[in-house]
Amino acid sequence: MSVAFRRESDDEHLEPTFELPIPPGPNLVTARGLAQIQERHDAIEAVLAGELSEEERKKVLRDARYWRQRLASAQVAPAADGKRVAFGTRVTFIRDGAERTVELVGHDEADPGADRIAFTAPLARALMGAEVGEEVEFAGSDEPLEVVAIAMSADEAR
């Protein structure tokens, strides 16, 4: 039989599994973000300590490598003073006549549905360093964003 018609194993036909991507740059976190990373890390380590099939272990180890790295590289950012938009602040702005408040947090803590965005997101980068009353250009819009309030995040105010 020709080598072309032999099948060594089913594994060679599976899609490759890649590592979870680590966001570039520093791993800045709030105190709440560090606690969340620690919880995820601990939960995955607990799963690894249990009985797993070889395939399940591979999947869990992939997640474990990610969370181990995120925990090891986490840097709690210094508390912002609240005078300028910075990491760990809540900023209220007006865009197209609508008011919105977002909190600038680390990658693993970001949850746009809860109005927490990563400090590297385009909106966060546009707002960074602005003061109350300042207008900021964003996404080529004809109307700039107007910063109306800056506050320490609830996490940082403790």
Automatic annotation (TrEMBL):
Pfam families according to UniProt: GreA_GreB (PF01272)
InterPro entries (UniProt xref): GreA/GreB_C_sf, Tscrpt_elong_fac_GreA/B_C, Tscrpt_elong_fac_GreA/B_fam
Region feature (Disordered): 1-25
Gene Ontology MF, one: RNA polymerase binding
Biased composition (Basic and acidic residues): 1-16
Transcription elongation factor GreA/GreB C-terminal domain segment(s): 83-150
BP-aspect Gene Ontology terms: DNA-templated transcription elongation; regulation of DNA-templated transcription elongation
Keyword Cell membrane tagged: no
Keywords annotated in UniProt: Elongation factor, Protein biosynthesis
Protein's recorded name: GreA/GreB family elongation factor
Lineage, top ranks: Bacteria, Pseudomonadati, Pseudomonadota, Alphaproteobacteria, Sphingomonadales
